[in-house]
Amino acid sequence: MERLIHNRIKAEYGRVLGNIEKEEKKGFLCVDRMLLSHLEADLSTEPDGMYVSNESLTKGLAVVNGGDDTIEIIGSADMTLEVVSPTSVEKDTMHLMRLHWEAKGREYWLVDPREKTFSFNIYRYTPAKFVAVRKVQGWIKSQVFHKEFRLQREPTDSGVPTFCLETR
Predict the structure, then answer these.
(1) DSSP letters of 92-153?
(2) Domain residue spans of the chain
(3) Staple partner for 43: which of 34, 38, 55, 93, CB 3.0–4.6 Å?
(4) What is the pLDDT of residues 9-49, one digit of tens each?
(5) Mapping DSSP to helix (H, G, I), strand (E, B) and coil, where does residue 75 land?
(6) Closest CA to 100 of 85, 120, 80, 119
(7) What is the pLDDT of residue 12?
(8) CATH number assigned to the domain covering 4-167
């Protein structure tokens, strides 16, 4: 089971990125419970979200193993999303980031929803390591989606914060 905030953030990313996927038809988004494997990088994980472009499929950088009934993507995702929880800080910020870099993933999106460390960052692949994309007035440009994104955290009367992933 996962924390409520973790789940709400994944839903927000799925809503926004799913709409982009539907409008642009340049790839597909998977949110939760889809296996991503890269044999050379020794990566086998179920990220909180991932996007695979049609271009990556055409070039053989990613393969849908088993067609539309698959449970696994083999290769490199263009974008991988991880949401930090109190028990996954080291795993998400170090271990998985390194493995996704070794798998040559184009972007690694990292959300830390914890109140005192709240952040959203996009890391871009370089030959040496993932490098954080510079924020401009809170906005971060994604090369995968060719858009800028910003995540806002807003309090609610219920005490459960709401999250808004803005795009332009």
Answers:
(1) IIIIHHHHHHHTT-SEEEEEE--GGG-EEEEEEE-SSSEEEPPPBTTBEEETTTTEEEEEEE
(2) 4-167
(3) 38
(4) 999 999 999 999 999 999 999 998 899 999 999 999 999 99
(5) strand
(6) 80
(7) 97
(8) 3.90.1570.10
Output the pTM of the full model. Answer: 0.95
CA 38 from centroid of its chain's CA atoms: 16
CA angle 61–27–98, rounded 5-degree value = 50
Determine the Cα–Cα distance for residues 15 and 47; give it in Å rounded to an integer. Answer: 16
For the chain, count helices (H), then strands (E). Answer: 4, 13
Q: Write down the pLDDT at residue 20.
A: 98
- Contact yes or no for 66/72 (Cβ under 8 A): yes
In this predicted model, what pLDDT tens digit does every residue of 107-131 receive, in sequence order?
Answer: 999 999 988 889 999 999 999 999 9
Q: Starting at the edge strand that comes first in sequence, how are the strands of the sheet with 162-167 ordered?
A: 140-142, 147-154, 162-167
Mean pLDDT over each residue of the chain, to the nearest integer? 95
What is the distance between the alpha carbons of residues 119 and 111, in angstroms, rounded to a whole number? 6
Six token digits for residue 35? 């296996």
CB 77 within 8 A of CB 105: yes
Amino acid at 14: G
